[in-house]
Structures are given as C-alpha cells and as structure tokens.
Amino acid sequence: MQVSAILSTFGIEWDFHDCYRSEFHRSSDIMGPFDAKAVLGRSGLGAKVSLTNRYGLIPKLQGAIKANHPVLLLLKSPLTAQMHWVSIWGFDEKGFYLYDTQSDQQDVPIGNVYWLDEQLQKAVYRVTFLIEVGAGT
Fold it and tell me: Distances in Å between the alpha carbon of 54 and those of 50, 57, 106, 121, 130?
C-alpha cells in the first residue's frame, strides 16, 4: 500500500491496519483518495487531493516534485489493467521515477521503476486522482 510507503519514507510509524476504513477495505486493499488524505493528515503530513487528466498530468506532477512533495497517483496497471495507486518521487526530462507494487524492479536511483511521460499518460484513465503529499490540508 502506497500510503504506508509514504509514511515509512518520512519516518512515521503507523499501524497499516489503521489506514483502512473497514475490514472489507483492508482485506481487499482498497483505499480511496479521501481516505488516504485523512490518514496522511492524522499522521502529521498534509495532503491535497485533486483531479487531473492525462493532458494536465505532467506539469502537475513536475510542480509537486519540484516543491518536494511526493505524489500518489491512481492509474491503470500496464500488467493487469486494474486501477491502483503508485507513488512518484522524482523526474527527469523524459519521465518519472515511481514506486509501483505491480511492476518489476528496475535499476533506478529512486523508487523501483522508471516510466516515460507517455507511459504515465497512457496509464491515466480519462480523469484520475492525484494526491500531493505535504501540501495543503
């Protein structure tokens, strides 16, 4: 679960069972954007939830990362086509470094996988949620 990864990166100890709204959500590993925002807020990290589409995605991500705010993004897995959360930690001129539990490990300096801008845009299904960690309330 990406919220746990964010909390642990910031050195915040948190019982991951407290991250879910119900036993059903916990057993299914389902967390909505406002549930994630609530957990991040209770832990002392602010978070701002917004909607984005594939066309506005890249500038929003770059702005958040430049402000030192990792991002949680809901997207389609290229392997399973299921919606899931990834965390984005950095970028360069061609793409982004992210941590994706549904991707194989690559040799990258940040996270576990590197996606080109086009790959990330393709994985966004019409409109998606973006959570900027450490921003807003």
Answer: 13, 5, 24, 5, 11
Rounded to 5°, angle at Cα 88 from 77 and 53: 65
| 84 membership: H or E segment, kind and range | strand 83-91
Give 50-78 pLDDT, tens digit per residue: 999 888 999 999 999 999 999 999 887 76
pTM, two decimals, is: 0.83
Length, in residues, of the chain = 137
CB atoms within 10 A of CB 35: 15
* 98: its two tokens: 């992210």
Nearest to 4 by CA among 43, 49, 62: 43
Sequence letter at residue 72: L
Q: What is the mean pLDDT of residues 89-94?
A: 94
